[in-house]
Specification:
- With 424 residues, the chain is mainly alpha-helical.
- The chain has helices at 2-5, 11-40, 45-73, 75-92, 99-127, 130-161, 164-185, 208-213, 221-233, 243-251, 258-278, 284-306, 313-344, 351-358, 360-379, 382-406.
- The chain folds into two domains: 1-133 and 148-190, Growth Hormone, Chain: A; 220-411, MFS general substrate transporter like domains (Growth Hormone, Chain: A).
- It contains 16 helices and no strands.
């Protein structure tokens, strides 16, 4: 089992170690941040929510230009600098005491995180053969979940203490974890940047310069559609942290502590089985099949979750555990398929830019997911669960046609349209 959780020695293992180093700090940050901002910084909960929404909105806009910068200047250097920037932005939370400084620090944190994710993906693409990328990403996802679980345990100790010093210690740990991440990334082999290719003779001037100045991904409609569909699938992200806790406490007779059981179950399942689920996914065809299967599994999970309402507590608990198992399986299949498609359908010289755009789905899901899930699950109940499952299934099936449109019949990216001549 240990061998299946550790990637091969060399750059792949270093990337996993970098992932582990900062995910431990992030796990502690996630479970304590809301109470830190309200109890230590002294902000009202509504202001915390507004500030984080503004921050992740800024982060979603920053991913593409920072990913583009990583493509041109070299992803390793960009990743190291963005890891340091993330650590410094977390450290800034230690001294902020008002709303505007909090928003500024949160925006710096979200932008740095978005750029770091894009730069890491570009670095991975430059170091690992295409056929091995999804498998490595599965290792990294397992590492991420293991680190988050360990960090959440440390954060729980801080919550148990409840002191200002304990909260400050958690944020200092998270800041240090990103500095360690940057140090580990420095040991990874460098990948040369790829400056934009010069236009063919006779195509200088006119609108060509403006076209090249715009990110290519914003003109790639199939890839935009792929990102939007993946965003729908990612609406499940706040399920464990918000949707299910509210469902359990307001719609079922199950014990409140079951919330933590479901979180541990999901984290453990992804840690142990994500690599195994990703095996056999190495092309757009296998990726779209995996996403379609995950859509059916997620629909089944939603139906089982809905059955936990209005039944005796033991029956509700059994249904919730069964639903959580199905949800974890759907999450692993969907993640592996989406990773493969996001790389296969991006130009080789613009991986950072394209991954920066694809990563906006995460920030949008984090922003809209809480509103969508509370409306569907808490207010609508069983019909809301079925609508969520149906939307997931529809998005998973739509991935196939979009992927085929984004790739030629031989699997190569569809050529860009020829430039139009300048008007005279």
């Amino acid at each position: 089992m240990t061998a299946s959780l550790v990637p091969p020695a060399g750059p792949q293992r270093l990337l996993a170690l970098a992932q582990l180093s900062n995910s431990v700090g992030d796990g502690a940050f996630y479970v304590t941040s809301a109470l830190y901002f309200t109890r230590v910084v002294g902000l009202a909960p509504a202001r915390v929510g507004l500030g984080l929404t503004l921050a992740w909105a800024a982060g979603s806009l920053a991913g593409v230009p920072l990913g583009r910068l990583a493509d041109r200047r070299g992803p390793r250097g960009a990743a190291v600098l963005l890891a340091l920037a993330t650590g410094l932005s977390v450290a800034a939370f230690l001294v902020v005491r008002g709303f505007l400084p909090f928003v500024a620090a949160a925006c710096a944190y979200a932008c740095s995180q978005s750029g770091l994710a894009a730069a890491r993906q570009a670095l991975l693409a430059g170091l690992v053969r295409p056929a091995e990328r999804t498998r490595l990403l599965a290792y990294l996802q397992s590492t991420l979940n293991a680190g988050l679980a360990a960090g959440a345990g440390l954060g729980g100790l801080a919550l148990q203490s409840g002191t200002r010093t304990a909260y400050l210690g958690v944020f200092a740990l998270d800041a240090a974890s990103f500095l360690l991440c940057g140090a580990v990334l420095l040991r990874v082999p460098a990948v040369r940047g790829r400056p934009p290719a010069a236009p063919p003779a006779g195509e200088h001037g006119c609108g060509q310069g403006r076209e090249r100045a715009r990110p290519a991904v914003v003109r790639d409609r199939p890839y935009i559609a792929l990102t939007l569909l993946n965003t729908v699938l990612l609406l499940r992200m706040p399920l464990l942290s918000l949707g299910l806790p509210l469902w359990i406490t307001q719609r079922t007779g199950a014990a409140d502590w079951l919330v933590s059981v479901l979180f541990v179950l999901n984290t453990g399942a992804v840690t142990l089985f994500q690599v195994r689920v990703a095996r056999g996914i190495g092309s757009p065809g296998s990726a779209t099949r995996a996403v379609r299967r995950s859509g059916w599994v997620m629909l089944a999970a939603c139906a089982v979750f809905a059955l936990s309402a209005g039944v005796p507590a033991p029956v509700a608990a059994g249904a919730l555990v069964a639903g959580a198992v199905l949800q974890a399986a759907a999450e692993m299949g969907q993640s592996a398929g989406a990773w493969q498609l996001s790389f296969d359908l991006a130009p080789a010289d613009r991986v950072g830019e394209y991954q920066g755009f694809f990563g906006t789905g995460v920030t949008v899901a984090r922003t809209l997911g809480p509103l969508v899930l509370t409306s569907l699950l808490v207010e609508w109940g069983t019909p809301g669960w079925l609508l969520l499952g149906g939307a997931t299934l529809a998005a998973s099936y739509a991935m196939g046609p979009v992927a085929r449109r984004a790739a030629g019949r031989d699997g190569r990216p569809t050529p860009r349209p020829a430039a139009r001549p300048c008007a005279t």
